Amino acid sequence: MGTNDWVPQRSGDYAKDCETGRNYARELCELIGATDNPGYLGRVMKAVIEGGTYDGVEIGFCHAIAARAVHA
Length: 72
Known about the structure:
The chain has helices at residues 14-35, 39-51, 56-70. By secondary structure, the protein is mostly helical. The longest helix is centred in the middle third of the chain and has 22 residues, at 14-35.
């Protein structure tokens, strides 16, 4: 997953797409931790909004980010 764009791989299967989103969230959290740069989340969310789609991938992504915040 790039941080300058949001072009996720979609399967068309909601559950699989949610899992893909959770995987993207995990990768992003690893990147943020490795670089100590939380600004990456804002860049990704801007790209999500500009992409204009909120479906399984985005739902899984947002849920995983929120769950990580709750358990931090």
